[in-house]
Amino acid sequence: AIAIGHAARVAVAALLLAASASGAAIHSTHALGFAPSSPLSASHALRGAGGYLVSPQASSALLGQSLASGGRRKGGSGLLGMNMMFDQLSGSLEGVMKSLAGKKQITDKSISTALRDVRRSLLEADVSLAVADEVIEGIRTKAIGTEVVDGVEPAQQFVKVMNDELTRILGGEQSPLAQVEGGMTKILLAGLQGTGKTTAAAKLALYCQENRKSKVLLVACDVYRPAAIEQLQTLAAQIGAEVFQQGTEANPRQIAREALEYAKEGGFDTVIVDTAGRQVVDQNLMTELKDVKHVVQPDEVLLVVDAMTGQEAANLTKSFNDAVGITGAVLTKLDGDTRGGAALSVQTVSG
Length: 351
Fold this sequence. Notes:
Residues 1-23 form the signal peptide. By secondary structure, this protein is α/β, with parallel strands linked by helices.
């Protein structure tokens, strides 16, 4: 969804963007959507909803929204990515019934083939190798030695163990996006260049306006990417939000500081800071991000990750988490990917 600054409070937010940057919804264990009752049934429970929600509470309000950066793709669904992963997992369990038939206890030998298939399915879905191995070990540990309950097929019991483990990893409880009562909620967006941070900022602003009746100030701290400020202004104009910017010559730390002062004077209750990205993680990026975070003192630090990043998503998440301590993650362009395993990697690595 990927809470790392606040221990077990993480958000896997899925912001669905088509290849043309089509309108997307924000989803997350951070409460920007709704949670499927069971990960393994997600492909059925959520089909057509517009995106996979790892566990949330509000994305439905955004599913039909679109910004000028692109219209919502007709018939498109970000569910495809996560559906594919869960469908693959479901398919890998077809042989479990035979291997566990007549067994009174689940043993390592009886589920070894099933676990190999599950591991392969995770890797094919772009879950990182380390995360896939961790998931498999968790399932193995919980399943082996489990006594078969009367009236319950061994295979069904194994599936339940696997389902419980995936639910635990993806986030079994809703964790709302931070909101400071009677004060100012500050949200910092971070990530590499081209992941969709600016569009995510506007979508998040729209969510806060429509679902929290917030007065939102968008802060343009990306002074490097050509037309980054103009893009944020264009998107903000469509949703009636205000942008604080000081051009491309100002220092991001200075922009952030003066933006907070402006927000206090203007009575804004939510500030969303759009930061600069780089093509790769580098020291300059992290240093500047740390400086901006120090000034803003955000209630949320959301890492924006391109779902196409695949298995590299785990390393990317670790780098940003180690540097600034993220509290949530936004997975963009899920409907442009057929797998979606990055969500599992990000959630697992971030804690």
